[in-house]
Amino acid sequence: MNPRFLPYILKTLWRHRSRTLLTVAGSAVALFVFCFVAAIQRGMDDLRTRQDQQQSLVSFQANKFCPATSHLPQDYERRIAKLEGVREVVPIQVFTNNCRASLDVVVFYGVPADRLSKIRQFELREGDWSAFERNQDSALVGEAVANRRGIRTGEKFSIGGITVFVAGIFSCENLAEENYFYVHLDFLQRRRGANSVGTVTQFEVLINDGVDPAAKGREIDDLFRGGPVATDTRSKGVFQARSLGDLTELISMTHYLGLACIGIVLALVATTTLMSVQDRIKEHAVLQTIGFSGRRIFGLVLSESVLLSAAGGALGVAVAMFVLRQSGLALSAEAVSVAFQPSLALALLGLAISIGTGIIAGLVPACQAARVEIIPALRNG
């Protein structure tokens, strides 16, 4: 597009401002939804990739699904640690206020304080690590859940009969981790009295490089097959995918919702551009009489379509990125969270789709405008 014609294009679009603004708004809403869909899909892909890259297993009670129903003897830790290829076994007590799918689940992970740094890589944004280690009722809170719930360092937070002192707020490269509370194992075991002492929800088992996770998981399960409580051991990625259950399929199916959003933008922009061309048949004939070639008129109409689509796309993408970053949303089920992941790459993808859609939507109207016959157009106009 020649920059000299930009004022003409803008004036043309503003001539029917109601139609233009409605098209921009519709495109913005469609790209907003597209970004949300793509963000949760990227979060799911990132969760799978990160966990599959780790040599990490999770041992859970067999035939149990919600953390509230899984109770493994804590002394299993000693027996698992003796297996060849196992470098670390960490007992974990899990508490969640809701096992069902939700956008705002609170999940507590009770872990021995001296071993938390061995299984998680955090960066404290606020607070003091030593304060967490000293106080049994203290917690380290993920930045995403802290922002959602308005939690601040030094305050107390209560939910589901649990009250913790917030010793620090952490960030993590794995955004899903920012949706968890990490507390002391003993503290979480005693939240319902002494009956929980000596049992844990699960074990996280770190294995050496080169060890087959599936084979090691079967070895652990064989070890406890005779009781007192049987285990179900899987790689962490498989365990989390199983915990998410049908949500995994639903997230995969949102791919079609994203395609539908693109189709909506295409239909909106194409309809608006075509209506604009039909309203200006005489104008395009006049442009040809003063020396504008069909190719140049084609470029002008196509530029209108691209500008219209890009304006709506940019607005929708900008609002989506702002909302996603500020809200820290995550979809959770059975104490496993999938973080919505906004990124520069996602924003650029959204803009590229809006521009590409504008080009495709403008092709037919631009061809129609470029091929207008001067005399019939002037006579009928």
Provide a brief overview of the structure:
With 381 residues, this protein is an alpha+beta fold.
Explain what the structure shows.
The chain is an alpha+beta fold and 381 residues long. The chain folds into two domains: 3-47 and 247-380, no CATH class; 64-229, no CATH class. It is built from 14 helices and 14 strands. The chain has helices at 6-15, 17-53, 76-81, 116-119, 129-134, 143-149, 185-189, 213-223, 236-244, 246-279, 281-289, 294-327, 344-370, 374-380, and strands at residues 56-61, 72-73, 86-96, 107-111, 123-127, 138-142, 156-159, 162-171, 180-184, 199-200, 202-207, 231-235, 330-333, 336-339. The strands form three sheets. Strands 1, 3, 4, 5, 6, 7, 8, 9, 11 and 12 form a ten-stranded mixed sheet that branches. The protein has a two-stranded antiparallel sheet with strand order 2-10. A two-stranded antiparallel sheet has the order 13-14. Helix 1 crosses helix 12 (294-327), helix 2 packs antiparallel against helix 13 and helix 11 packs across helix 14 (374-380).
If helices are DSSP runs of H or I spanning 4 or more residues, what is the number of helices? 14
Report helical residue fraction.
Answer: 40-55%
Tell me what portion of residues adopts beta-strand conformation.
15-25%
Give a count of the beta strands, DSSP E runs of length 2 or more: 14
Characterize the overall form. elongated
Find the structural class using helix and strand composition.
alpha+beta
Secondary-structure element order, as H and E?
A: HHEEHEEHEHEHEEEHEEHEHHHHEEHH
End-to-end distance: 27 Å
